[in-house]
Amino acid sequence: MKLLVIRFSALGDVAMTVPIIDALARRYRDVDITILSRPHVQTLFARMPANVHFRGIDLKRYKGIGGLYRLFRELKREGYDTVADLHDVLRSQVIRSLFACTGARVAHIDKGRSKKKALTRPHNKQLHPLPSSFDRYEAVFARLGYPVKSDFHSIYGEEKGDPALFQEVTGLPDGKQWIGIAPFAAHPGKVLPPETMLRLLTLLSTRENYRMFLFGGGKEETRQLDAWAASSPLITSVAGKLTLEAELSLMSHLHVMVSMDSANMHLASLVGTSVVSVWGATHPYTGFMGWKQSEHHAVQVDLPCRPCSVFGNKPCGRGDYACLTQIKAEDMLQKIEEVINQP
């Protein structure tokens, strides 16, 4: 059986498929699995079992219905008889529908849009945990006749990544407590005020046994991270200096990662590193907490308007982003030290 798994989307969303696909591949060794996604996420699947393959595509080459039909024809020639759509957007809907018309078995994710809307509406919120994305991915494979429960720990198994991939930028692990900090996210409803992050870095820099590594990307983010790194010899910005493979390797050597509700939370989760996650307009109840991460380590404030957004992309109804401005650096420091000091 040849199974095509479709998940385009953002890095964090694709990362959340890894524990489930890994478990699927290990349980059903006779199933030939191909991941269809964007090329830059291939590293996430590099250590999968031998029955997992990756097919990266540039979606710009397949514009419109005609382009998607051409992509379907290419895929059909590769012999897939089963399709798991883990994305459920227009592109994936077209591809899976064309496969269904040819007799292939097809199943797609139920994103629970109506319940997420009830969770984030301004009034009469239904404030309770929704199924995680991991649960929703498992449900897709169960509908195809491949039930699975994952005990995934790390893409490196019980080991850690190769330090040679990052040592030129960071040096080798030196016995200090290594702390990763990823202070940015795609939307303003998930990003702390700069002064809060600077305060946290100042507090952490008073601990001589701590070393901080700043993660991010993009011109403006890199500029800000470099400026913060210049404030202390204990802080190093790795933004723009490491490949994704090297970043994952470095994350596996961290004692804790501090991340917004963003891709870096999920990347750290894939290498078995505990995450202190920060939630503003969004909420762990939406189902996007990192793999095996504890809500006890989530930093958030209790406001009647939270959560107001699934993705953090809606303007603040209050106009002041109190969900972020009321988070204190001292609260984050407490969570960081709880993780570092836990058995």
Structure overview:
By secondary structure, this protein is α/β, with parallel strands linked by helices. It has helices at 11-15, 18-27, 64-77, 90-101, 113-120, 133-143, 167-170, 194-204, 219-229, 244-252, 263-270, 322-325, 329-341; strands spanning 2-6, 32-37, 52-56, 82-85, 105-108, 177-182, 210-214, 235-237, 256-260, 275-278, 298-299. The chain folds into two domains: 2-143, Glycogen Phosphorylase B (Rossmann fold); 173-337, Rossmann fold, CATH 3.40.50.2000. The chain is built from 13 helices and eleven strands. Strands 8-7-6-9-10-11 form a six-stranded parallel beta sheet, with helices on both faces. A five-stranded parallel beta sheet has the order 3-2-1-4-5, with helices on both faces. Strand 4 (82-85), helix 4 (90-101) and strand 5 (105-108) form a beta-alpha-beta unit. Helix 3 (64-77) crosses helix 4 (90-101). The model has no long low-confidence stretch (mean pLDDT 97).
Secondary-structure topology with pairs:
Blueprint: E1 2-6, H1 11-15, H2 18-27, E2 32-37, E3 52-56, H3 64-77, E4 82-85, H4 90-101, E5 105-108, H5 113-120, H6 133-143, H7 167-170, E6 177-182, H8 194-204, E7 210-214, H9 219-229, E8 235-237, H10 244-252, E9 256-260, H11 263-270, E10 275-278, E11 298-299, H12 322-325, H13 329-341
Parallel strand pairs: 1-2, 1-4, 2-3, 4-5, 6-7, 6-9, 7-8, 9-10, 10-11
Helix pairs in contact: 3-4, 8-13
